[in-house]
Amino acid sequence: MNTIDSAVPLRRSTLLLLLAAIFLISGCTGTFSTTQPVTVQMNLTIANVVTGHTEQFTVTVTNTTNTVVTWQVNGVAGGNSIVGTITASGLYTAPTAVPSPATVTVTAIAQADPTKSASATVMIAAPPLVAVAVSPKTANVVTAATQQFTATVSNTSNTAVTWQVNGVNGGNSTVGTISASGLYTAPAAVPSPASVTIKAVSQADNTKSDTATVTVTAPLAVTVTVNPKTVNIATSLTQQFTATVANTSNTAVTWQVNGVTGGNSTVGTISASGLYTAPAAVPSPASVTVKAISQADNTKSDTATVTVILPVSVTVSPKTVNVQSGFTQQFLATVANASNTAVTWQVNGVTGGNSTVGTISTSGLYTAPAVVPSPASVTVKAISQADNTKSDTATVTITPAVTVTVTVSPKTVSVVILLTQQFTATVANTSNTAVTWQVNGVTGGNSTVGTISASGLYTAPAAVPSPAAVT
């Protein structure tokens, strides 16, 4: 016992001597050995964390081989349920409720030197509330028809909803049904009241929902409209009819003529597309009924009236003529089977003609050109304005103009007073050989110089005129 106790002061004295020697040696050489202070650095200084969620913190400890830290929350090692907890690896879990105050401090303390630490401020917030939005918000749906609704759920990973109609999951036959995907099917009859409520309830939080309003209506009656409503059509010609069907997706119609589906050769036929072909002869009566019947609802139809008429015809007269250059020829166009008897005149296909082939007025007066064209024959055409597919033509041969000559015989004659003398006039180079007779410039003469008839019979006056010679 005494031996041991006496050895302790000896060992202490030896240790002190060794330390003093080391100090002296160091002091003599001027060399010192210093140690850097421990430092702690954290990856975050501020963090926002939703209640119940986590945030990973990391630290870097330098100037020591012992890099272990002690984690605290608001000075509590490991934290607690009020301010949040933190693991030995730095994983912070926010509390389930926002503390008061809502800001806490996470601290990492170096175990190598407890005077060294790093801190971060954590702001804790409640998570955003689950929200549900239904679209569309309002809809009008015909009985037995469907309407797709969509529900957008936010602030949760569970976006499923439960659909209701008037508070009934999935609805029913009275107010309409709705599928799990939001497809609403209106009931077969309009409910009372006609408006029902569509609701989407969040499955993540059944206190959260949204609604839409559906007004259920009876379907509109099918309507059929035929165009045109009245038409006149010549035998064997065609007329396109159209049928507009409203308030149904099936717009097909069945066409009839005088109640016969597709018509027949007597009253005319009509195709499935509404093309009517008039019969070859005018039926009796001449008016027939074209009807379009809805295939969606055969109690709904519309009609048009077709009057079958003889085809328009045009006749030009005269058919062939010879006209001297610069002269005129009147043409006549007769239009049958049309109330509009007007025609458009052409010469060699040119409306109104021109100076080369001759011109023609709107009344059909043709004027030959001043020079004979090549070829000398031209075509005058009258086109019906009631039906421009109908026309007729005439041929005009243009000849050089010739001078008309008149020769009277005898040339000289003596006539006793009151006696007569027959004269003749020969007219050349014209088809009109008529002449007007004059005595001394007076048509038909007179009692002083004598008279002359339309046939050229001259009667001398009762007394010899002065001068006695007359012309």
How many angstroms does the end-to-end distance come to? 202 Å
Radius of gyration: 61 Å
Helix content: under 10%
Assembly annotation: single chain
Low-confidence stretches: 1-33
How large is the share of residues in beta strands?
over 45%
User: What is the number of helical segments per DSSP (H or I, 4+ residues)?
Assistant: 1
Please tell me the overall pLDDT: 92
Q: Give the overall shape, derived from the CA principal axes.
A: elongated
| Backbone structural class | mainly beta
For the largest beta-sheet, the strand count, sense and barrel status come to: 5 strands, mixed
Q: Count of DSSP E strands?
A: 52
Strand order of the largest sheet: 2-11-10-5-6
